[in-house]
Amino acid sequence: MNVNPNFMSNMLSAIVFAAIGIVIFVVFFVILDWMTPYDLWKELNEEKNMALAIVVGAVALGICIIIASAIH
Questions:
Q1: CB 69 within 8 A of CB 24
Q2: pLDDT at 1
Q3: C-beta separation of 48 from 42 below 8 A
Q4: Which domain holds residue 37?
Q5: In a domain? residue 41
């Protein structure tokens, strides 16, 4: 079986880039929560605000796509 000699280097790069992307996303989400005039967690979990959940999910996906494009 032929193993790529750069396998470990590629795996390390993938893990580092994934960690950077996750950290950037968490920072963005904290900033988003800080910028909104209400408590996102309370609105999503206690009030069951479905419209807000859809908007926050769409924004999260958009930011994830931007982060993935920048890292790629």
A1: no
A2: 56
A3: no
A4: 7-71
A5: yes
Q: Give yes or no for a contact between 39 and 46, defined as CB atoms under 8 angstroms apart.
A: no
pLDDT in tens, 18-52: 898 889 889 988 898 898 888 888 888 899 999 98
Residue 55 lies in a domain: yes
- How many domains, in total, are found in the chain? 1
* pTM of structure: 0.71
Contact, 63 vs 28, CB < 8 A? yes
Q: Residue 43 is encoded by which pair of tokens? A: 């609105």
pLDDT tops 90 at residue 68:
no
Residue 60 identity: A
- Find, among 70, 39, 68, the residue nearest to 56 by Cα: 39
Contacts of 40 by beta carbon, 8 Å cutoff, 6+ apart = 32, 33, 52, 56
Q: How many Cβ atoms sit within 10 Å of the Cβ of residue 66?
A: 13
